[in-house]
C-alpha cells in the first residue's frame, strides 16, 4: 500500500496492522513490549512501519506530561574512552541548552536495559540519546511507543523511526591508509576487536578493499 495515498491523514497503529496483515493487538504488543511477537511477524510490522512512515503521536502524548528538562543517555560501558567522551560531550551541550543528563549504563545486561526503558516510558526524561545497538528488539518497540524523542549515535538503524548520527568508518580508514601509503609504507597491519558490530565490519572491509586495490600485501597475522 502506498502511504502517499493517505494524503495528510495521520497514519495510525490500525493502518500499520492492516498493512502488515496482522491484528491491531499484535502491533500494540510489539510496540509496547507487552507480549511475545514471532520474528516473522515482527519483520512484517517493521516493514509496514517503514512503508507507511508511521510515527507515534508525540504532540498528544507530550501534552499529557510536564517537561522534565532532563535527557537520558544510553551507553553500554563507562570505561570505554569512546563512550566516556561521548557522555561528556552530550552533557556539555545539554547543559548549555538548560538540560541535565541522566546516564543509563546498560553494562550489556538486558535486565538493566528493560529498567531504563521503563524509566523512559514513565516520561522521566524529555528525550534520549542511544549509543547502544544491542538493545533487545522488543525494547526498541517500547521506546518507539513511549513517544519520547530519541536520536541514535554510532548505531546503524534497521528502520527510519529515529535519526542516527554515525561515523563514516570507511572514509576514516581510507584517509589513514592513504597517509601511511604516502609515507612509503607498504607492510600495513590492521588491529581491531572481532567485527561483531557493523562499524567494525565496515572498518575491516575498508582496510581489505584498500590493500587489495593498491596491490599491497595482506597477511593473516597482521
UniProtKB/TrEMBL annotation:
Keywords: DNA-binding, Repressor, Transcription, Transcription regulation. GO terms for molecular function: DNA-binding transcription factor activity; transcription cis-regulatory region binding. Residues 11-65 form the HTH lacI-type domain. InterPro entries: HTH_LacI, Lambda_DNA-bd_dom_sf, Peripla_BP/Lac1_sug-bd_dom, Peripla_BP_I. SUPFAM superfamilies: lambda repressor-like DNA-binding domains, Periplasmic binding protein-like I. Pfam families: LacI, Peripla_BP_1. This is LacI family transcriptional regulator.
